[in-house]
Amino acid sequence: MKQYLLIFIYYFIIPTVFGQTWIQQANFGGAGRYSASGFVIGNKCYIGTGYNGSALKDFWEYDPGSDTWTEIATFGGSGRSGGAAFSIGSKGYVGVGWDGSPLSDFWEWDQTSNSWTQKADFGGKSRVSGAGFSIGFLGYIGVGFNGASSYYQDFWEYNPANDSWTLFTDSCITSAAYVVAFTIGTDAYWGTGRTGTGNYTQNFWKLSQSFEPVSLSFTTNPGTLCDDNSITFKNTSIGISSFLWDFGDGTTIISTNPTHQFPGAGAYKVMLKPSSFMCPEDSSTQIITINSSPTLSLSPLTPSICPGDTVTLTASGATSYTWSPSTGLNVTSGDTVIANPDSTTNYKVVGTNSTGCSDSVEVTVTVQTSVTSSFAFTSNCKTVSFTNNSQNGTNYFWDFGDGITSSDINPAHLYADTGIYKVMLVVNSLNCGNDTSIQNITISTPIKAQFSYAIDTCVATVNFINLSPSANTFFWKFGDNSISNLKNPSHQYTVSGNYSINLIVNSGTECADSIQHNIPIDKDWLNSTITIPNIFTPNGDGINDKFEILSNNICNKYNIKIFNRWGQLLIDITDFTYPWDGKLNGSVIPEGVYIYVIQGEKNVKTGTLTVLR
């Protein structure tokens, strides 16, 4: 797109009426550029963005009083040319434009904070070289083109009160770009511009606003206004639908009937104005006087009395006082009253100062009820824990019956010896009497847990023998997640390992005892191995005369069968416990090679046996 909108020449010339001459002012503070955007706030002018071979986004403030330029916060959007701008109050607005393509974003500059904030995007199509102006509290952007061949004739109205855009008109004026626009009073003017490539217009338009008669007025709460209360403002204006309130304490709000609490006592200038473009110069102003409220104090803060007693309540900080309820009070006015309620009662005193502002304080007079002593206990052999169930006590005295005392609320006590002890609890209330309760506590002789065990290695079973004297309940834990309540249980283990055996016993008292032993279990006890000779000489010389099987498990029994080389069964011994002397029917068998089959409980062995003499 060709950049040739509205060229800014960076020196200022001010016309004078008398000589009708132009006076050059200080050159623009930034770099030279064209297609920039500008607006006016009060008596200062602002120019920024534009193009000089690069899209720019710096912004500058011109002060005609000192003829100086000062750079302000950099524009919040992208660098651009051909943007539209206007101002409303102390805010400046810049939107749309061109940064390589047409834009629709829209930004607000706050003169107080010197900061840019992005607002709602422009309501129409993205565009460049449109016209911008404001009337009262509303802004307008319209016409322009898309940087190519599409020219626009629509105008959009911006309301900063709700950050919204509304289509204003799109048929009354000619489609154009590079339009010049300005405002005089409540009338806006725009004209000239380009309507197409090589086409230029002389059209000049005026937007006139007509206003109905309006009336601005408001009232506040009737009576005295105080600094600790919120003030409700009632709007009695006519002919206006949207209002801006300035409460004179730095707070403004757009509302119809607002409620506001002032920061303190004083006189505040409250101003009501329209929040739209209609009659922005109209306002209604009142001086609102906010009076100081008293700060009440009351003593005592937490009064407590016994039934039939009285307490004096004293308030301060105001000039007059009213008390309620009247129940139990000798009077209901004045700074001092005497309270004698039959039961716990909450009293409220309202204090009023000379300006008519008030404060209130509440206090509860507690009437104590009769004190009651009561306690429960749990015993862990010689240690006893006491639970105080007394009512309405303030301090406590315990006598444990063994010469030891305590003032704790819920004490625990360790007795040195067994026996029966008389425990006494005396409970006192605050000047309202006392009560005593007594209970006997038996401290039993502790039981001693003991046991022994025997291991049957043939079946990996442990037989437990309880040796605890006087015990009548038993709880065994065998270390493999198995338990028993028997007195003398047996338990078989299936896995080798070291097992912690725990026994808890009791004799019907609170004095249980426990003991633990570690027991090793080896499952290899059940895995037998045997050694079988392959030759023996039953010749009576005392050397290798017998056929003997050697085993590492004395629990296993064996069956042996011996066959000759033709498969005839010669020997069948069902319980081969002792060595064989090689005899069959009283005579030693002939020399030769024989076959044996040995059957154990968990294995079978076969082989050959050679007999020599």
Explain this structure to me?
The chain contains no helices and 57 strands. The chain is mainly β and 613 residues long. The strands form 18 sheets. It has a 5-stranded mixed beta sheet, with no helix packed on it. A 4-stranded antiparallel beta sheet has the order 3-4-5-6, with no helix packed on it.
List the SSEs and their pairings.
Layout: E1 13-15, E2 22-24, E3 37-41, E4 44-48, E5 59-63, E6 68-71, E7 84-88, E8 91-98, E9 102-110, E10 115-119, E11 131-135, E12 138-142, E13 155-159, E14 164-169, E15 180-184, E16 187-191, E17 194-196, E18 199-200, E19 204-208, E20 218-219, E21 231-232, E22 234-235, E23 243-246, E24 252-254, E25 259-260, E26 266-274, E27 284-290, E28 297-299, E29 304-305, E30 311-316, E31 320-324, E32 336-339, E33 345-352, E34 358-367, E35 375-380, E36 383-388, E37 395-399, E38 405-406, E39 412-414, E40 419-428, E41 434-443, E42 451-456, E43 461-466, E44 473-477, E45 483-484, E46 490-492, E47 497-506, E48 513-521, E49 530-531, E50 535-536, E51 550-551, E52 559-563, E53 569-573, E54 583-584, E55 587-588, E56 592-599, E57 604-611
Short description:
This protein is mainly beta and 613 residues long. Helices cover 0% and strands 46% of the residues.
